[in-house]
Amino acid sequence: MVGSMKKVVVVIAFFVLLASTFYYLQNLGSSTGDKTLRVYTYSSFTSEYGPAGDIKKLFKEQTGYDIEFISSDSALVMLEKFSRDKNKVDVFIGLDQFSIKKAKESVEWTSVQKSKDSNYFNVFYQESSSFVPYNWSPMTFIYKDSSLSSINNWQALVDSKVTYSVPDPRTSSPGNIYLYWLYSTFKDRFVIASHSLKPLSQWASSWTTAYGMFTNGNVQLGFSYLSSLAYHWNNNEMNYKALSFPSGHPIHVEYVGVPKNCNHCKIALQFVKFLRSKPAQTALMNKNYMFPVLKSAMKDTVFEKLPKLNLLPSGNMDSFINERNEIIDVWKKIHRNN
User: Fold this and answer.
1) Crossing angle for the helix pair 265-275 and 278-288, to the nearest 10 degrees
2) Rounded mean pLDDT of the chain?
3) Mean pLDDT of 16-39
4) Closest CA relative to residue 306, chosen from 249, 240, 245
5) Could you tell me where the beta strands, DSSP code E, fall in the chain?
6) Burial class (CB in 10 A: 0-12, 13-18, 19+), 14
7) Could you tell me the end-to-end alpha-carbon distance of the chain, in angstroms, rounded to an integer?
8) Where would a tag sit more exposed on the chain, N or C end, judged by fewer CB atoms within 10 A?
9) What's the pLDDT score for residue 115?
10) Which domains does the chain have, with CATH numbers?
11) Confidence of residue 25 (pLDDT cuts 50, 70, 90)
């Protein structure tokens, strides 16, 4: 009997040791000096002129943690890359209204505590507990020629016969937002409106290319962020202005999220909070040229001087996202030779 009891004790001790070893190895990164967050984001965020460098420096000063940024062309490419990544990822930066549905379907996310606070803008569509907005901007047409300032609705735009550039909705979030603007405004007249606008619109593979067509003078208007004016005005290009449609403008919102299968989960959640702090919001505003979500970050900056635009209600967003593939098919047929 004593011999049997000894065997049982030995077996129990072996499994306790095995479990302890497994726990130690699982937490080795956070206990032996591996103080690096792996953060997925988009390429312009990590570019020479993007905010990644400032964000990395500020976060390390605050927490001692370094950041390894892994960049992709878009949020959808990010999610595809993540599905093949054998290493754990701590944070996603740059999800938006159009990629969140795919994100929910393909990744499990950590719930992030947040509450509505009057110090922050709360005009955003996405109310999920897993995704937190960190910057945003209304979208509109930007112009340089003062004679175009009287265009204040879609019919006036058609009548003006001016040309404008738009990014391809298959490869660009701003392109999706343009289609959503038409869809939300015209609803069952979407196809008719698209045909009416076809002679005026010129399409490009990315926002950068499309906006470059406008700044280089190839077209008279560029579909872009209202916050693009902040960049121009900071460079004394005061002739750049934004069209205002009283019927309402769409917005582009960027979100941050933490996958459940994170490595440094506690620090990742701390990073989400940090991204909405004044130092980080200021860095994002000055390098990403988007509106901060923290209102006080705009004080005494060019962003305070930008025009206020009426915003579209978000009620049509779900139906647009659900019908997006069919809407893009219609768009392709209309613009096949464009």
Assistant:
1) 70
2) 87
3) 55
4) 240
5) 36-42, 66-72, 91-96, 131-143, 164-167, 201-204, 221-225, 241-242, 251-257, 291-292
6) exposed
7) 88
8) N
9) 64
10) 12-17+27-136+253-304 (3.40.190.10), 138-251+306-334 (3.40.190.10)
11) very low
